[in-house]
Amino acid sequence: MTAEQNPLNILGTKVNPGETKEVNFDVANLHTASPVNVPVIISRSKKEGPTVLFTAGIHGDEVNGVEIVRQLIAKGINKPKIGTIICMPVINIFGFINLKREFPDGRDLNRVFPGSTGGSLASRVANKLVKEVVPHADLIIDFHTGGSGRFNAPQLRYAKSQKNLNVLAEVFGAPFVLYSKNLTKSFRTTCTKLGKDMLLFEGGKSFHIDDVVTNYGVNGSKRVLKHLGMLKTVFKASKPKKQCVFIEDSKWQRAKYSGMFKASIAVGTKIEREDIIGNITDPYGKFNYFVRAQNSGYVINVNELPIVYQGDALFHISTKVKP
């Protein structure tokens, strides 16, 4: 028989085994003096087990991640069979209110970790998250999207050296794993330094909710919870449709000309060198340049903006995959 858990003290609230509580992650009021409630939903089983933290909305314009965590809560997937599940659907509530990536102080929250108690607003939010929430987690799954009109294929990101995450990544079942270095002062880097495992999910683009991306995020989360023994039997965790492709290296293909741009291949497609993958035109019907693939590989990001300038990133293409 699994042992009963002890009370969890988090953000000034005690959550007993078997309880579900909504606590407030508050840092500052709006400039109108109106309070801002940032709900954190904590669900606990009576049985001892791991603690999984689901986070989204570090960037206020990345609404698809918010939708994934919302569905985990709305469907009751966040109520564990064993252990504890903590859900933070919107961390950067200030950016989310205005649909802006950054905080009102202009700072990118994902570049100020671990933050400080006496720094900028973004820095204070980062510090509170690191000091009062992250220590309780055994595993963190953080949801993001592509930015600036660039659509990401559903993928997981972590450093190649974190080989212990390969098994969890295969369980999650995203189409791709992109090995990427930990960025300075990012949430992922800070959690890694604290000894916390994190799967960072990227999918879709900012200001947009995509059903396919959402389904990958929700289904992947269910698979991981089942793998940990935390998913209630009422939920089914289907097997991934395709084997995950591990990308060891990749590069951006950039625009040679400015103009109106349209991709002719879908994100996630495997292409060959010299394939026509898009075209750039002018508004007057005098110019039409066919964009050809500079190398063979998988297309893991496509620029969906209609206007591009010379040097803009058009496609992110794998150059080396794990055998």
UniProtKB/TrEMBL annotation:
It comes from the Bacteria. Signal peptide: none annotated. The keyword Metal-binding applies. Its cofactor is Zn(2+). The keyword Acetylation does not apply. Pfam families: AstE_AspA_cat. Keywords: Hydrolase, Metal-binding, Zinc. Residues 49-227 form the Succinylglutamate desuccinylase/Aspartoacylase catalytic domain. This is Succinylglutamate desuccinylase/Aspartoacylase catalytic domain-containing protein. It comes from Hyunsoonleella jejuensis. The lineage of its organism: Bacteria, Pseudomonadati, Bacteroidota, Flavobacteriia, Flavobacteriales.
